[in-house]
Design a protein that fits this description.
- The protein is of the alpha+beta class.
- The chain contains three helices and four strands.
- Helix 2 links the parallel strand 3 and strand 4 (78-83).
- The longest helix has 14 residues, at 7-20.
- The relative contact order is 0.21.
Length: 96
């Protein structure tokens, strides 16, 4: 039997990895009054800025999420990711 990792679980794992590696992290806990589609996580460390949208294994970003990711990816030096549970090894490398 395989267990399904939820977005919330993956996000918690990423935040834990990031904080352990010295990243400042931000997540809007109640996004009802925020801009719809803004990425789940914003992380900063040593001149690096990351925006990450977190999805379950088969989850797809909404149109608004895709638009934010595309717009942010056009900013020079900004790292933008769409991460799923299967990406955990890549995530660990990025957080180092």
């Amino acid at each position: 039997m395989t267990t399904t990792v939820t977005e919330k679980q993956l996000q918690s794992d990423i935040i834990r990895l990031a904080k352990t590696a010295g990243w400042k992290t931000y997540h809007t806990h109640d996004s009802r009054r925020s801009e719809f589609g803004f990425p789940d996580l914003t992380m900063v460390r040593h001149g690096r800025l990351i925006f990450a949208e977190i999805k379950r294994e088969l989850g797809k970003p909404t149109l608004e999420q895709s638009r934010w990711l595309e717009a942010l990816s056009m900013v020079p030096g900004t790292e933008v990711y769409l991460w799923r549970p299967q990406d955990i090894q890549e995530i660990e490398k990025v957080m180092k």
